[in-house]
Write a structure and sequence with these properties.
The protein has 310 residues and is of the alpha/beta class. The protein folds into two domains: 144 residues, Rossmann fold (3-Layer(aba) Sandwich); 141 residues, Rossmann fold (3-Layer(aba) Sandwich). The longest helix is centred in the middle third of the chain and has 19 residues. It is globular and about 65 Å long.
C-alpha cells in the first residue's frame, strides 16, 4: 500500500474532529465533501452561521487578555475575529472543541501561523513553531521507499543551532506518529563532516548536539551533503562512519530558503507528492495549506492532522 493510502486508512481508524475555517474557498468545500464521503475525519466547515456570537465575544476577551502584555489593541483583536472565522476556529481548537485546525488555502502562511501560535499556543517542550512536508516520491528507492519528511520549509528563515535541534525532534516525532517509521535524521549542508569549515557547519553541529540532549537515543547525523545523507553508496565513500549510512528519511535543511527550494524542486522535477505544510511545535495539531493547493492536498493535510490528534 502506498504512503498516501496508509495515511488515509490510519485517519479512518480513529476519527478526530478537524475544523476548516475557509468556507468560501471552493477547493475547501469540495475537500470537505470528499472527507465526509470517505470517512477520514469529522470535519466542520466553519461558516459564519455556525459562529455563536456570545462565544465570539468571549474569545475576543480571552485573546485580548492573553496578549494584553504585548500591547495588543482591542480594536485590532475585534477586527481579527470579525474578518473571517480563522481566529474563532483556532480558539475553538485551543479549547478542545476541535482536535485540529487546517487552513491556508486563502490565507498566507504568516496569517495562518500567527493565528495558530497566538490562539493554540506553543508546546513548552519544543519551544518553537516550525513546519514540515511529507514528501512521497514515485519510483524512488531512497528514504523510506521514497517517503521523506522535509523540515523546516515554511516558518523560520534562519534557525539557530538550538532551533535546528527542536525542528529535528518535532519532525522526527511526526514521522513516527503519522508515517509509522523510525526516524533517521540528516542535518543537510553543502559539506560533509567538515569538508568545508563554515559558520553553517558549526550551527549544524550545535543543532545535532541539542537534538541528542533532548533525545539521546535518536538516530541522527550531520552535517551531510544530501547525496551522502540519502544514497548508501555515496555515504560509504564520503562518510562511511555515519550512523545513518545514507538512509536518512527525515531531512533537516539549514535555512528556510534551502527547505522551500528543496521541497518545490522535488515536487516539480520528480512528481513527488507534498503533504503540508504541517505545523510543528504547537499544543494542538494544525496544518497550513499552500494557497496553490489542490483538493487532494487539503484532504491529505486533514488526514495527517487527524492522525496527529489520535
Amino acid at each position: 500500500m502506498d504512503t498516501i493510502s496508509k495515511i488515509r486508512d490510519l485517519a479512518r481508524s480513529e476519527l478526530k474532529s478537524i475544523v476548516l475555517p475557509e468556507y468560501d474557498d471552493s477547493r475547501v468545500v469540495e475537500a470537505v465533501r470528499f472527507i465526509e464521503k470517505e470517512g477520514l475525519a469529522k470535519v466542520t466547515l466553519m461558516t459564519p452561521d455556525k459562529v455563536d456570537e456570545s462565544q465570539r465575544k468571549r474569545y475576543i476577551d480571552e485573546y485580548y487578555q492573553m496578549h494584553n502584555s504585548k500591547e495588543v489593541d482591542l480594536g485590532v483583536v475585534q477586527e481579527l475575529f470579525n474578518r473571517d472565522t480563522l481566529y474563532y476556529s483556532a480558539m475553538m481548537t485551543r479549547e478542545g472543541k476541535f482536535d485540529g485546525l487546517v487552513a491556508g488555502a486563502s490565507h498566507t502562511t504568516p496569517e495562518m501561523a500567527r493565528a495558530a501560535i497566538r490562539c493554540i499556543g506553543i508546546d513548552d517542550r519544543i519551544t518553537i513553531v516550525s513546519s514540515c512536508f511529507i514528501m512521497v516520491a514515485p519510483n524512488c528507492p531512497y528514504g523510506e521507499n521514497g517517503t521523506f519528511v522535509f523540515a523546516d520549509c515554511g516558518i523560520i528563515p534562519e534557525p539557530n543551532g538550538r532551533q535546528l535541534g527542536c525542528i529535528a525532534l518535532s519532525a522526527a516525532e511526526l514521522a513516527e506518529k503519522v508515517l509509522g517509521f523510525k526516524a533517521r535524521i540528516a542535518f543537510l549542508s553543502y559539506s560533509t563532516k567538515g569538508s568545508a569549515r563554515t559558520k553553517s557547519a558549526e550551527k549544524i553541529a550545535e543543532g545535532l548536539a541539542q537534538l541528542k540532549e533532548m533525545s539521546p537515543d535518536i538516530l541522527a547525523d550531520g552535517e551531510l551533503q544530501v547525496d551522502a545523507a540519502i544514497v548508501p553508496e555515496v555515504a560509504k565513500i564520503k562518510y562511511p562512519e555515519s550512523p545513518i549510512g545514507g538512509k536518512a528519511n527525515v531531512l533537516i535543511f539549514p535555512n528556510l530558503e534551502a527547505g522551500n527550494i528543496g521541497y518545490k524542486l522535488s515536487q516539480r522535477l520528480s512528481g513527488a507528492r507534498a503533504v503540508g505544510p504541517l505545523l510543528l511545535g504547537l499544543k494542538k495539531p494544525a496544518s497550513d495549506l499552500s494557497r496553490g493547493c489542490f483538493v487532494e492536498d487539503i484532504v491529505d493535510c486533514v488526514a495527517a492532522t487527524a492522525i496527529r490528534a489520535q
